[in-house]
Amino acid sequence: xxxxxxxxxxxxxxxxxxxxxxxxxxxxxxxxxxxxxxxxxxxxxxxxxxxxxxxxxxxxxxxx
Length: 64
Prior knowledge:
Blueprint: H1 11-21, H2 35-61
Helix pairs in contact: 1-2
């Protein structure tokens, strides 16, 4: 298991983290990552960033 907040992640670890957002379970027999899983994970990552941005704006305006 790797630390999600570490700055020295390998590309493989980062791709597996992103693919996990897209439904990749990272089990022993799952095989290699597919493009659809990575694509869905990237879309979910964008959703997370937009949510954090909206929350910080709401905090600045006093709604949080």
